[in-house]
Amino acid sequence: MVSAADPGENRTSVWLVAKPATPVRRRTEAPSGLDRERITAATVRLLDADGLTRFSMRRLAAGLGVTAMSLYWYVDTKHDLLELALDRVLGEQSLPAGPYGSGGAGWQDGLRDLARGYRRVLAAHPWVAPLSAAYPDIGPHARAFDAALQRLMDATGLVGAVRTGAHLAVRQFLHGCGGAVRRAPEGDFCLALDVLITGIEARAEAGTKTTATATATADA
């Protein structure tokens, strides 16, 4: 049986499915007072209140005062709805805007803001961490998050495999902290984040020195 956090192997993400225009017959027969936004917001509230394991379309419909079948006018599956809810709460986070010049100062504070904001989302919505592991984070808010992280990584001045490794380390840190977000004190999280940032800084400084030495040797 497929669980709420296990979408199975043959499913296509809701963000990759082109939704055809709703036929006239369906528009006129659709339940009044409902739309995808309202259903998604109610899904978030139910997940926050009852958790992922207790979530069901029947419970959601009861909270909205409609039948479970009414929900399927707006979403094809429960998994589609969970993906929509996941991206909706990711949109609660304020993203650092920059700009950050390559190798310039300021990316460290931007990365701290990004990581702490993501941790707050995980703490406020404990179901986000397992859903992020089960579904591809490719909704509009997830893409905006990724774009903000890419700008920060660009600003470190790292290139090539080192930049790829630093980016992977940050991603793993952010996702890894999800399982421990309610156990690890804020101070411990911030300390671990500072250690990560210090490591990135060290590699960036080493790369700058190597480039400067190579340039001086070539000019000699």
From TrEMBL:
InterPro entries: Homeodomain-like_sf, HTH-type_TetR-like_transc_reg, HTH_TetR, Repressor_TetR_C, Tet_transcr_reg_TetR-rel_C_sf. It comes from Streptomyces yangpuensis. Keywords: DNA-binding, Transcription, Transcription regulation. The lineage of its organism: Bacteria, Bacillati, Actinomycetota, Actinomycetes, Kitasatosporales. This is TetR/AcrR family transcriptional regulator C-terminal domain-containing protein. It comes from the Bacteria. Residues 33-93 form the HTH tetR-type domain. Pfam families: TetR_C_1, TetR_N. Gene3D superfamilies: Homeodomain-like, Tetracycline Repressor, domain 2. PANTHER family: HTH-TYPE TRANSCRIPTIONAL REGULATOR RUTR (PTHR30055), TRANSCRIPTIONAL REGULATORY PROTEIN (PTHR30055:SF151). Residues 56-75 bind DNA.
